[in-house]
Amino acid sequence: MLKDTFKFQGSLGEIECVVEPNRSENNAVLVMAHGFRGSRDSGGRAAGVAQQAAAHAAVVRFNFTGTQIISRQVEELHAVLAEVRRRQPGCKLFLLGRSLGGAASIITAAQDGAIAGLILWATPNNLRFTFRYVMTEDEYRRLDRGETLHFNDERGECALTPDFLTDFDQYDLPALLQKAQPLPVLVLHCSADEVVLAEQAQRNAAAIGEAAELHIFEGGDHSFTQYSEQAGALLSDWLGKRLKCGAC
């Protein structure tokens, strides 16, 4: 059973995975993928959610190596899943993706075909729409016509190359969600999300159909600042039910 932090060499560099040990007897692992320019810590909230979910499964958190290109993030997520399977054979694997990490998780789940369940946390349904919404019109137009954007944020300098957008075009997220069925999916969103509009969660749930469980929290922001603990309790319960009933 996974208990300790581990490292391995991915195709883009070393990946360090932090493990919240499983407090149950389930042979199950939840892998968490962070969002755009985020981290495995998410301001400390991710560790709290991991602690809640560890009532039913080991929880693995990691940082993407710095690439913003979603295809490369999917590649790294596949590598993490492979390493988890190597270290804990036969485990039921669940994915939790936050924001852009949710999109990477949708793609990965559809490609993998053996994921036991998927949790989408503030996850977009349309990637170009999402970034056109949060960028200024000038920024989006410059990136879309082939310029590289440079900016600084709390994680330091970032260069967004044009293939950040063009790479999105090969992924139809609703179609991938349908392809992954009958995969059970928990969809969590806040109604006042200022980055990924709540209507995108509703579209994700509609694409999934009967296998979706949708929860939209009244108010709240993209980071679930007010609702992180409540959402963590909900997803922990959902995870426990999936494992208890064998629906995965």
Radius of gyration: 17 Å
Helix count from the secondary structure assignment: 9
Secondary structure: helix percent: 25-40%
Largest sheet, spatial ordering of strands: 1-2-4-3-5-6-9-10
Characterize the overall form: globular
Order of helices and strands: EEEHEHEHEHHEEHHEHEH
Largest sheet: 8 strands, mixed
Low-confidence stretches: none
Measured between the Cα atoms of the first and last residue, the distance is: 19 Å
The count of DSSP E runs of length 2 or more, i.e. the number of strands, is: 10
Strand content: 15-25%
By secondary-structure content and strand pairing, the structural class works out as alpha/beta
Mean pLDDT: 95
Structure summarized in a few sentences:
The protein is α/β, with parallel strands linked by helices. It contains nine helices and ten strands. It has helices at 45-53, 70-87, 100-112, 127-134, 137-144, 163-166, 173-179, 198-208, 228-245, and strands spanning 6-10, 13-20, 28-33, 58-62, 92-98, 117-121, 149-153, 156-160, 185-190, 212-217.
Account of the 3D structure:
With 248 residues, the chain is an alpha/beta fold. Helices cover 39% and strands 23% of the residues. It has 9 helices and 10 strands. Helix 1 (45-53) runs parallel beside helix 9, helix 3 packs parallel to helix 7 and helix 7 runs parallel beside helix 8 (198-208). The mean pLDDT is 95.
